[in-house]
UniProtKB/TrEMBL annotation:
One of its GO terms (molecular function) is SNARE binding. It holds the Pfam family Sec6. Coiled coil: none annotated. The gene is Tnfaip2_1. The lineage of its organism: Eukaryota, Metazoa, Chordata, Craniata, Vertebrata. This is TNAP2 protein. GO terms for cellular component: exocyst. GO terms for biological process: exocyst localization; exocytosis.
Length: 109
């Protein structure tokens, strides 16, 4: 969650301030966003493949499906820039489904 908050803050600064300092062809925001996304995706996958408790699975899935795509877009300037980049999901759909099933099975028990 701390990393996500930092990512949102950093990308907001890039979208509102740093982006203006470079010519559009430098694609500064896209580069920052892709680097952050790739790092987060690798960390999310690494965490998803480790042994997680139910609360951790819930938190990871909540972040991947709710916070990352939705809360990141609450800032208008950030949302406009993110829409141009189209980053995709942080987890492969098969791994996400596997975690969802594991969590639901545990909740049923």
């Amino acid at each position: 969650l701390h990393m996500g908050k930092t990512m949102k803050e950093d990308l907001t600064v890039v979208a509102k301030c740093i982006n203006k300092l470079y010519p559009p062809e430098f694609n500064v925001f896209r580069i920052y966003a892709e680097l952050y996304h790739n790092y987060f995706a690798s960390q999310a996958k690494k965490n998803a493949e480790s042994h997680l408790e139910d609360k951790d699975i819930y938190l990871l899935l909540s972040w991947v499906h709710n916070f990352y795509p939705k809360d990141m877009r609450k800032d208008h300037a950030l949302a406009m820039e993110l829409d141009k980049v189209k980053l995709g999901s942080l987890l492969p759909s098969s791994l996400s489904k596997e975690l969802e099933n594991k969590y639901l099975d545990s909740e049923e028990v």
